[in-house]
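Course assignment 3, question 2. Fill in each field.
Student: A.L.
Task: Predict the tertiary structure for the chain below.
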Amino acid sequence: MLRIGVIGVGRWGQNHLRVFSELPCDLVGLADSDVAKRELAERYSVEYEEDYHDLLSLVDAVSVATPADTHYRLAKDCLLAGKHVFVEKPLALNSKEAREIVDLANREKLVLAVGYLFRFNPAVVKLKEELRNVGHIHYIALSSVHSNESLPKDSGIIFDVASHLFDILNFVLGKMPQRIFCKMIHYLSQEREECALISLDYGDFIASLEVSCFHPLKKRDAWVIASKQSIYVDFLEQRVRKYASEIAPDKAVNRDILDVEIDKREPLKGELRHFIECIENKREPVNSGEEGCLTTRLCELALESAAKGKELTV
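Answer field:
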């Protein structure tokens, strides 16, 4: 049975511990520099290591759930030690480092997966299926907003939140945009942006993204407006609603609302199960390092566009 360790057991890393303990694998141990996390190891009856290097000799694979600015170093160390790696998003904070990690995993013939959770959200999977029937897409609007008392210390909202929306689009559309334009707000911090509006040009349609960490509501959703059908997706509630449409010159009619049946599941459990199965069956993950590279590049370009105040070619 595959031996797995978790590196970093803060709020999200503790979810990794819980899920791995419920999956068909051998959860061997955890590593965290906070010695108070030894209590978690005792609770799960696994090994505790303060230094993650000491965990590597015990496992076949690791999940890395540490702050984003440590992902490059930890993923590289674990791959060099011959371990399969699941690393939470983003893969790295620049595309040069992301590419280095992907090339290393390929060279060592190791599985590398990136924690883009929404690829395993049943509502997102259903959206990808339904896009075959919508006709010509006119535009897509995605929103991921919430109110938060504190900001991440290692990245702003582009890498922290917009990265998920970029990856959702890459997943459901199967292609990258041609051009990108971004405006963002530094209100609480001059180091890390808290809000952004992003426009993506796909040539024959556009997508708009809204991300904010001081919005009064918590919302993760999307609209697809197209010639035959329009679709609304609530990612949090895992709900999909279709509207039969007729959008043509001089006429726009929406009718026949239909709620799509969704088999609701925990995305993290599906994601970590997929990681295990890819190792056991020697398959490339749906949330591969290559996909992580593409999303890192879009985050980079969004920040560059905002800094330069102009639209950029992808």
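Instructor remarks: The first strand starts at residue 3 and ends at 7. The chain is about 35% helix and 30% strand.
Grade: pending
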